[in-house]
Amino acid sequence: MTGLLIGEVVRSAAEAAPRRTALVRGGRALTFAELDAACDRAARHLAARGVRRGDRVACPARSLAAALPAYVGAARAGAVFVPLERATALARPPGAVTPCLVLTEAELAEVCPALASATAWAPGPAPGHASASTPAGEGHPQAAAPPEPAPEEGDPHLLLFTGPGGRTRGAVVSQRAGALRAHCGVRPEPPGALVCGLPPGHWGAWTAVLRQWQARGTVVLPEEEGPAAVCAAVREHRAARLLGTPRVWEGVLDTAPHHLAALRCADVETAEPGTAPPRLLEAIRTVTPGARVRAFFATPETGDLTAWEHADVRARPGTCGTPVPGVRARLARGELWVRGPLLFDGYFRDKRATDAALRDGWYRTGRAARRDEDGYLYLTGRRRAERERAAAPSP
What we know:
By secondary structure, this protein is an alpha/beta fold. Helices cover 30% and strands 24% of the residues. The chain is built from twelve helices and 20 strands.
């Protein structure tokens, strides 16, 4: 890599292993060279639509696979990528996040036909927003603009929606933080294909895919939703690793656990460590006897925060593990604070919430916690400060 830039992750992999498979969805696959070319097309497509450095580009695609070239292409164009779980979310964007451009699945198919959804919905903007062919505030294509400066590591790239209590805010993640969150050293992986079982719209999917590409490995995305499709993808591609939320893992274990026996790494990702109870990790361990079973506590604001192994569940009941590499943790009056290069930059256009959450480089998680003599953390509930921040109106 020439820098901590999202676009450089794919570029580096394409130069080192151009013919290696980067992405598989159903019967369709892309090599790293083909993926790199698709990302370049996406960047040019955005520039042609008038997107400039720092502009927000929303992508309400139902297919993660189809949206990935746009995700990387936006980084190369210096734009801020705003993934949305569903197009209807654009009608009332949280935190006054009004994109200058809304991509449609038809355009994503144009950028990379090999990954287009077979059931792409008709192109068109969500209510009150510009279409991709007409930048916001314009009724005709813009004239050619001077070339934009190259993106820098500190530029915002990803805007992730987050917030308890229904008070959704946009967490702004820089190119540097995004690249570091996906660095192989944060979550060491064995070689082999990864099946990403995170549900559509899950913020962690972008980091999971990028991490596998950092390692120049293959990402397999189930063609359909549901545990049966996840199990089929593991079996068909002889995957070494499976990543999912506790709910996804429970569904997989109830559907076809015999397909998981050859896994070498079984990862559970959750923003609520209590939803990954000991019984779940024990059940995963039973059906994956040769796998490393791990759970990760992660949030949009922090990326991976802590990790704990299956063995920790038995030895230290109730732990959420120890901070991942690059993350420092401390307890301030019983509240867990963290800092490090993986942190977000703040909440989009919400200074009050940003000032309440970030203090002298530390992120106040709002979680009451304790730490044992070996550095293992235990969450003991939510603090009043988090509840007050959640209830505070956004400007």
